[in-house]
Design a protein that fits this description.
Number of strands: 11
CATH architecture of the largest domain: 3-Layer(aba) Sandwich
Structural class: alpha/beta
CATH topology of the largest domain: Rossmann fold
Largest sheet: 6 strands, parallel
Radius of gyration: 19 Å
CATH class of the largest domain: Alpha Beta
Order of helices and strands: EHEHEHEHHHEHEHEEEEHEH
Number of helices: 10
Bound molecules: NADP nicotinamide-adenine-dinucleotide phosphate
Strand order of the largest sheet: 1-11-8-7-5-6
Number of domains: 2
Shape: globular
Strand content: 15-25%
């Protein structure tokens, strides 16, 4: 039997509506408009599209959106000054510096200049540490989106065997912490792991965040398992065009899995909405208002 397709687009649309309604209430009751600032250094076309979409989504939800575009050769001290200025600006509640940065810039120094209260990507050491301590209110957007999809499609994941393939700061590490906090039994795999197919076959929930098209094969998947495909890879579609695919061999995997996220339309659809949720949370926290819960 073919797997249930996890509809990230539909879940994202529901969350979007709730965020817009909450933002409208916040404005009416407290005169507070959440503000998101995006910073892009250089003109990588994919990053330009991502940043534009973030700005558009923010505006559609009634947020204030500020975009700062800096040339590719921006010196380190200028970028740090921009980030510090935004950190001090009371009308900006969330700051997103689009990564990766051009090679001459030091990402760690940029994150150190960012006020953790405005770190809506949750990449600063402060927010990573708060997540580890179970006290974070700003959680990395893609892992947060994955947890919402699991909540909706699986429910309680206590005691489930979960394999997360990939250990990036942006996804794998925070995802593993959130899964652990939800009482799953979590295994993390990476490029040095031995016998990935064997590890994968144990998993009730298999999460792939590798960045390699079709890397996870159908015969790695335990029949009926939930497959969460985080990968976004652009490949040649053969007709002079390109198309997006995930890290899982989707067509074959959906015949074995119990449920699976498509690419596009799965995890990716949730990420941007979770960024908006973080901006809303950050705005409330910075104004000593109760944090929105159960959105
Ligand atoms: P990343 O920083 O490049 O990390 C990739 C991870 O995969 C690393 O931990 C690496 O292991 C592991 N890996 C690489 N080759 C492997 C192999 N042969 N076997 C096992 N593990 C292997 O990537 P990322 O930022 O986490 O992103 C991963 C994918 O998710 C990308 O396609 C990215 O575009 C996508 N993504 C999507 C969203 C979204 O919104 N949907 C958000 C973030 C990322 P090592 O640590 O040992 O090198």
């Amino acid at each position: 039997m073919s797997a249930t397709i996890i509809d990230g687009k539909a879940s994202a649309a529901k969350l979007r509506e709730k965020i817009a309604a909450y933002a409208a209430e916040l404005k009416a009751a407290h005169g507070l408009q959440p503000g998101l600032a995006t910073v892009l250094v250089g003109n990588d076309p994919a990053s330009e599209v991502y940043v534009r979409n973030k700005g558009k989504t923010a505006e559609a939800l009634g947020f204030r959106s500020v975009h700062i575009a800096l040339p590719a050769d921006t010196p380190q001290n200028e970028l740090l000054a921009t980030v510090r200025q935004l950190s001090a600006d009371k009308t900006v509640h969330g700051i997103l510096v689009q990564l990766p940065l051009p090679k001459h810039l030091d990402e760690a120094a940029v994150l150190d200049a960012l006020d953790p209260a405005k770190d809506v990507d949750a990449l600063t050491p402060t927010n990573a540490g708060l997540l580890l301590s179970g006290r974070a209110h700003l959680v990395s957007c893609t892992p947060a989106g994955v947890m919402l999809l699991l909540q909706e499609y699986v429910g309680d994941i206590a005691g489930k065997e979960v394999l997360v393939i990939g250990r990036s700061l942006l996804f794998g590490k925070p995802a593993a912490q959130l899964l652990l906090a939800a009482n799953a039994t979590v295994t993390m795999a990476h490029s040095r792991s031995k016998d990935l197919p064997m590890l994968a076959r144990r998993a009730d929930i298999l999460v792939a965040a590798i960045g390699k098209p079709g890397f996870v094969k159908a015969d790695w998947i335990k029949p009926g398992a939930v497959v969460i495909d985080v990968g976004i890879n652009r490949i040649d579609a053969g007709d002079g065009k390109t198309r997006l695919v995930g890290d899982v061999d989707y067509d074959a995997a959906k015949e074995v899995a119990g449920a699976i996220t498509p690419v596009p339309g799965g995890v990716g659809a949730m990420t941007i909405v979770c960024l908006m949720q973080n901006t809303l949370i950050a705005a409330c926290a910075q104004n000593n208002l109760p944090l929105p819960t159960g959105l």
